[in-house]
Structure formats: structure tokens, C-alpha cells
Structures
1.
Amino acid sequence: MTTAWTTKFAGMKLPLAILSFYGPTDFESGDLDKRRAEEYPERTMKIQNIIKALPKKPLTQYDGNGRDTTGMGWVRPGDPRSELVLSLFKEGNGLSLLLNGLPRSKNEENSSEDFSSEDSEDSSKDDTDDADTWLHAPDAERIAAISPLAQLRRGNYTVPTFVIHGTRDEIVPYHTAVTFVDALHAAGVEGHLLTVQGARHIHDVTLKMGTRQWDESVAPGYEFLLRHLRC
């Protein structure tokens, strides 16, 4: 969604349309830093151990093939990626992580000790060199710079947008999608909201094209994109 204004600031052509699946749109209200996702467990690893164990290369896709048998989906305690995300949901540090980045652990470059989820006592008391810096709340302008709602209210978001969001989304509250689409309409920008009753976050990952669920909760968004691409 940030391409709606970052392309403009970079002197590039705006996208013809944007399709958003359950994306966060309001970073100023504090909703994303409230404790949520209570059905998920607390993290078991210290932040410094998570940093050491994180893969060096980013992952760009979900494992949606259904091989997971834990019933917990992407949440796998002991996996540093899951542990980091649990920290965002449970401890109110989402914006700090997004905008300040991860802290550096003490002796990070010199230590070769292998950390695991078993080394998890007092995980809330992390021993990092710059803990105060990374947990410091970003200022309002830095937050607004990544917030679709803030940019819309400033007149910088003018791209037609289609939002798909589940009413039981445990990560990004459904009401934020309603607020954003209402704000699009108020600003005279084309906006659509497809409400998926009872759906949670990343509800579409395992859906197959041609099924009733796909046709009802995914296909309308792509049809919207195609209409604008053909104009």
C-alpha cells in the first residue's frame, strides 16, 4: 500500500490500483501495539537469542501446503521467526521493531554459543546493548511516513484500493479496514471493502482457485485489479 505515496515522492508513476489483504492501515492509533492474539503462546526465547538464531536471508512466502500438523499454523515456538512475531503481538513493541530495527545483543560478533528455546528463563528481561534505543517509541512523523491512513488524510493517497479483511482477524483489527475504506470514500478516492465473515489473518493462503471460498473471498479483489489494468 505504501506505493500509493512513495512512488509519487520518488517521481515514479503511481500504481493503477492496489489490492490489500488484511494489511495494517492505521499506525497512529496504537491498535497495532496493543496486546492481542491471546490464543497464541508467549514467546519462549530471549530477544538476544532470537537475533542470533534468525536466518540471514529473508523468507518471501508462506508455507501454505498444509503439512503442519500442530494446529498452530505459522506459530512454531522455538522458531526464531515465530518468536519475534509473538513479541510484536504480545509486548507492544511492533512499531519499535518496524522503525528502529532489532537491537544488537552483547558480544554478538564474538559469541558462537548455540542458543535454543530451552534457554528461555526471564525472556522478558533481555540483555542487549541498545535495548533502550530499539524500544524507544518512534516519533509521530516517522509513524505517519509508513501509515496509509495518515497519508490518505494528508492527500497523498489517491490510488483506487480494494481491501479484503476477515471479521475475526486476530492480528490486524477488522475495524481498521472499515475506518480506512470510509476515509477513502470521504476523500473522494475509489475504495472497496470485501468483508469475510468469521475469517482470521492470512485466511486465503490455503484456498484453491475455483473453489467457492476462493470465488467469494479472493477472486473479487483480482477482478478489481484486472478492471483497472484494462482501462
Note: Residues 174-186 form the longest helix (13 residues).
2.
Amino acid sequence: MISIPKPIIKSILFGLLIISYSCSKDPENIVEIEEADTNDCFKIGDEFQGGIVFYIDATNEHGLIAATEDQSSGAIWGCPETTDPIANQRDIGFGNANTNAIVNNCAEVNTSAKICSELILNGYDDWFLPTVHELELLYHNRNLVGGFSSTNYSSSSEGKNNDGIYKDVISIDFGLNPVHADRQQPIDKTTPLAVRAIRKF
């Protein structure tokens, strides 16, 4: 029978205790993460990869990060004359695709999508304009992210106007309380709206 010295046993047990403590799901015990690609020891509201985490998916390895300040207080969506849909995806995970579609199809300078697409912030250059559902998540975690104004923010999701054509952008009014039914508001694409860029990890 192999005999293990007591000092070695104590060292092993202490190491296991430290690992258990560091990756505990208790928010008070979560360690600070800097530039790790994936880690289950972060939470919504943490500083991570250039911004603030505001969404974590079911894998607990991927999610969305928001910039900590607005990129514009008033930028248009673009393509005001276009009546066919360009970027009408609304679900989580489609903000980047919507943004690329807007950039590739709208010739206007300084649209909300182009501002996000061309952004280089805190060492990252893969920012995009959120879909309306991504923006909705950002709204619900706005106090953790910070820096928002009580105004309408642009999503990358377009919508139909009263004539049934794609002339509107779906915005979210960050000045309304969380239970307000009219928070999502279709607004003409030529209306300047606030812009907050996000990125995925």
C-alpha cells in the first residue's frame, strides 16, 4: 500500500477548495474574467471582452456584450426609398447579419449600422447594431450596462409602416418602464435615433 505524506494530501485538498470557490455560482464568489474565450465564471453585468455582458445563452459559454456608452445620439437607419425588406430579422443572434445587410445595401453615410460596423472599441472591431429582440434584452439590463438616455434606440430590424411596406425601423423607447406595452415602436427610417453597439462572444 502506497503511503502519501500528509503535507501533500493537505496541498491537494486546499487546491480543490480554491477551484470550487473560484467557480462557484454564488455571485459573491465569481472571479473576475479578463480575456478568456469562454468561461462559466462570468455573469450578466460583468466587464468582459470590450464591454458589459448583458446576455448569456443556454450553453453558458456564449452571449452578447454591449458597449458602455452610446455611439450616436441620432443616426438614421438608411435606405429610405427601399420598400422591399433588407434586414427584417428580429431574433437573438441575427444582429450581425442584419447589420451587414444594411451596410451592403444602403448608400447613406453614417447610418446606425455603419457606425456600429466600423467601430473599433477596446481592441474589438466586430461590433454590430442589435436586432429588436437583442435590443429588448439590452433594455432589461440597461441599469447593469449603464449610460443610456431616456430616448428611442435603433435596432437593425426593419418593419412595415401603415401602408404595409418596409419603411420603418423598430426602435425601443428606453424612457418607458419595463411593463409598458408600447416600448417597441416602429419609426420612419429617416428619423435619427440613438445607437448602442453590441458584439457577441
Note: Residues 131 and 151 are 17 Å apart (CA to CA).
